[in-house]
Amino acid sequence: MLWKWRNKSIFEQGFSRPLNPASSLLSSVHQFVLCQSVDSSTLTNSVQQVSWRCPPLGWTKLNVDGSASSATHIARCGGVLRDVAGNWLAGFSVSLGCCDPYEAEEWALLKGLEVAWSLGVRRVIAESDSQNLINLLLGEDGSSAISLVAFQIKEFMCRPWEIKLQHVSRFQNQVADYLARDPTFNSTFIEYCPSSLRALVHQDCIGIIPPSD
């Protein structure tokens, strides 16, 4: 700062040094510290937004996803239930025939709720990376018309259990995405975590942020 003032006094006409240099220096340091704290907070929030989180005590987390081929229109859906430690409880991965990606997302949530109910789970946090589907089910899209599958989902939500719906990024939904896309899986109930998914499940448990594309 002192060097900067010296150069300005030499090369800039009309420049005069501050009357209280010490106060100006302290103010600059304070502004720098504030900027550093904002950057740190922003980074922390970014980490929290893209890493999968274990559910709180007493809850089970359901992640679901749907996919459809743009070439064949053949769709699939998949999902996984995990406990408070991120351990695999059950999964599913099935072919849906011909439908669009949004319908596949609906089927994924419905089938995921069916699996959760059949296991006796009664407090579920259901996560999907389909913002439109979550908005529809929460009544935030302003539409009164819903599909038959969405109606069935709402019926499931009215059963005697607690369900929280949450939208997440695709980075937080990687295990479900894998199950929805891999055609080697075809089961309405996968009891044990497949070996090909163990690394992803472990990454979620310890909060590793997946690399961006």
Automatic annotation (TrEMBL):
SUPFAM superfamilies: Ribonuclease H-like (SSF53098). Residues 63-181 form the RNase H type-1 domain. InterPro entries: RNase_H-like (IPR053151), RNase_H-like_dom_plant (IPR044730), RNaseH-like_sf (IPR012337), RNaseH_domain (IPR002156), RNaseH_sf (IPR036397). It comes from the Eukaryota. One of its GO terms (molecular function) is nucleic acid binding. PANTHER family: OS05G0353850 PROTEIN (PTHR47723), POLYNUCLEOTIDYL TRANSFERASE, RIBONUCLEASE H-LIKE SUPERFAMILY PROTEIN (PTHR47723:SF19). This is RNase H type-1 domain-containing protein. It comes from Acacia crassicarpa (northern wattle).
